[in-house]
Design a protein that fits this description.
This protein is an alpha+beta fold. The chain contains 16 helices and 16 strands. The protein has helices at residues 3-6, 19-25, 27-38, 51-54, 103-107, 157-162, 171-193, 252-262, 298-319, 321-331, 335-344, 352-361, 378-388, 439-448, 457-464, 477-485; strands spanning 61-74, 79-84, 92-96, 114-123, 131-142, 197-198, 204-205, 217-218, 245-247, 264-272, 285-294, 348-351, 393-399, 415-423, 427-434, 470-476. The strands form three sheets. It has an eight-stranded mixed beta sheet, sandwiched between helices. Strand 2 (79-84) and strand 3 form a beta hairpin. Helix 7 (171-193) packs across helix 10. The protein binds one RNA strand of 76 nucleotides through strand 1, strand 2, helix 6, strand 11 and strand 15.
Length: 505
RNA sequence: UCCGGAGUAGCUCAGUCGGUAGAGCAGGCGGCUGUUAACCGCCGGGUCGGGGGUUCAAGUCCCUUCUCCGGAGCCA
């Protein structure tokens, strides 16, 4: 709701229930409680303690640890194994003495080997670690051949991409994927706490114009000898779905239909773009989060987006401190300060027209000209958020010519209710809009985009039957991860990146 | 896709004026030390991205092609 209307709904007090109160009565809250009751952990045959837990113990304590050797140092009298099991950033130093039956084997143990260690956790007499594990027995579970490519030195990210199946055993990628997991959970927590429903929109679609880029074709036809119609064209009626089908480029249209019944929903799933994009910010397969909300206007949309970004950054700062400290130290100095600044900042809001005006008057010379009707270039976006505004900023109300057909036409006749969230360092993080809910206007804008309304009959039905104002936005999950970790290439925040010419692993 | 840069040992790189390739790390062997990017000695390791050309001679110069990286576009 607009601020103006928010305070005078029928004169009733406008105390909005805290989203956090909903959690206790929400479905997810009850499910979590039920899982705690019904699934007590069962002891494993050979139980182990995760290193994350071991490091919280007060020594002395007897534990079994299982993990992979990060580095090994040895001499006649003693051998040190640094063992990491991925449960946390830190590794555990295992001290092996010559009394161990297989001491000679352990001395030659190479980086990457898997071990199971039983021993006593004791305060470490040396600098470098508060505690260490004095081994009573070390079982070599899986030896790593000497050709194990990871060395105890810094590798380039380019090289590590070529061994994406092993790179998770490095400090950097262990941290990246712990943060990725934590943020994926935070996405769900954020929406579930607000009573949003998680919708699985289809991966395969026959909409050949979801409107967001080149699509991958899905077919079971023999591409070398497809069935033909009498005129020689490929006969798609013979294909699996009896028509051309593709991988989805967006869950938005499906999400909109669900918002017209569940009111507030979100999607969070894989998305595919067959663009020949060769940049550090694009992948052919990525994960996108798309909330869609009935009864929201553009301001409500931006409010939600702002709360969402702040909640996710806060989740990372509070839940992944050790990993973020590493990124701050080794990958992107200033990272934590920047994230904290965003969390506490009041995001700006500025009209596209005013943004263009201020960019034009800034005196800064850009490679591309700025004028009303121009797409803001990356250089414009960054100058706007970093210098002119100095904090995250929503740019709203773009010229209709440069935005998609489903965005709501404003009364001025030349702009649409679109918003882009720009953040320092990377530029656009979120794109969203209020949707065009008026049937006649939507049919017109579809035609103006050169599309056929007949192909959108089910989408248009939502405008035919109980249409309501609604809005939503899209956030590329990997873009967010790049922002949170400081990693500068999207290929390094997704387990097995798919990019042009690249579908290994 | 366009523009720019780069491909040399497993990795990171050096290689002068065109004269048949080096270092550190990793690996193997040995030594030494409560070590921690451990240290010391020795050893092995190369179709210099591929193809073509110029030249007595090409890692080096020219053409072409592939791949990677960065910038732009498309976008999330």
């Amino acid at each position: 709701m607009q601020p103006a209307t928010r305070t005078k709904v029928l004169g009733t007090p406008t105390r909005v229930p805290s989203p956090w109160r909903e959690r206790k009565t929400s479905a997810i809250g009850k499910v979590v409680a039920a899982m705690r009751r019904c699934y007590p952990p069962r002891p494993m045959q050979s139980a182990r303690t995760k290193i994350a837990s071991v490091l919280r113990l007060v020594p002395p304590a007897e534990v079994r640890v299982k993990g992979w050797v990060r580095t090994a140092r040895d001499s006649k009298q003693v051998a040190f194994l640094e063992v990491n099991d991925g449960s946390c950033f830190a590794s555990l130093q295992v001290v092996c003495s010559p009394e161990l039956a297989n001491f000679d084997e352990l001395r030659g143990l190479s980086t990457g080997s898997a071990v199971s260690v039983v021993g006593e956790l004791v305060p470490s007499p040396a600098q470098g670690q508060p505690v260490e594990l004095r081994a009573r027995s070390v079982e070599i579970v899986g030896r790593a051949e000497s050709s194990f490519p990871l060395q105890k030195k810094r590798h380039s990210f380019e090289f590590l991409r070529e061994i994406a199946h092993l790179r998770v055993r490095t400090n950097t990628f262990g941290a990246v994927f712990r943060v990725r997991s934590a943020l994926a959970q935070a996405v769900h927590s954020f929406f579930q706490a607000r009573g949003f429903f998680y919708v699985h929109t289809p991966i395969i679609t026959a909409s050949d114009a979801e409107g967001a880029g080149e699509m991958f074709r899905v077919t079971t036809l023999d591409v070398g000898a497809p069935p033909r119609t009498p005129t020689g064209a490929v006969d798609w009626r013979e294909d699996f779905f009896s028509k051309p089908s593709y991988l989805t480029v967006s869950g938005q249209l499906g999400g909109e239909t669900f918002a017209m019944g569940l009111s507030e929903i979100y999607t969070f799933g894989p998305t595919f773009r067959a663009e020949n994009s060769n940049t550090p910010r694009h992948a052919a397969e990525f994960w996108m989060i798309e909330p869609e909300m009935a009864w929201y206007d553009l301001d409500d949309d931006a409010d939600l987006a702002e709360a969402f970004v702040k909640a996710l950054l806060r989740a990372a700062l509070e839940g992944c401190g050790e990993d973020l400290a590493f990124f701050n130290d080794r990958v992107d100095r200033g990272l934590i300060a920047r994230l904290e600044a965003v969390v506490s900042a009041d995001f700006g809001r500025i009209d596209y027209a005013e943004a263009v005006d201020r960019l034009a008057k800034s005196g800064k010379s850009f490679e591309f000209p700025v004028f009303f009707g121009a797409n803001l270039q990356a250089e414009h976006e960054r100058y706007l958020t970093e210098t002119l505004i100095g904090r995250p900023v929503f740019v709203v109300n773009y010229p209709k010519e440069i935005k998609a057909f489903y965005m709501r036409r404003n009364d001025d006749g030349r702009t649409v209710a679109a918003m882009d969230l720009l953040v320092p360092k990377i530029g656009e993080l979120i794109g969203g809009s209020q949707r065009e809910e008026r049937l006649d206007v939507l049919e017109r804008t579809i035609r103006e985009s050169g599309l056929d309304p007949a192909g959108y009959s089910w989408y248009l039905d939502t405008r035919r039957f109980g249409t309501v104002p609604h809005a939503g936005f899209g956030l590329g999950f990997e873009r967010l991860l790049m922002y949170v970790t400081g990693m500068e290439n999207i290929r390094d925040v997704i387990p097995f990146p798919r990019t042009p010419r690249n579908c290994g692993f």
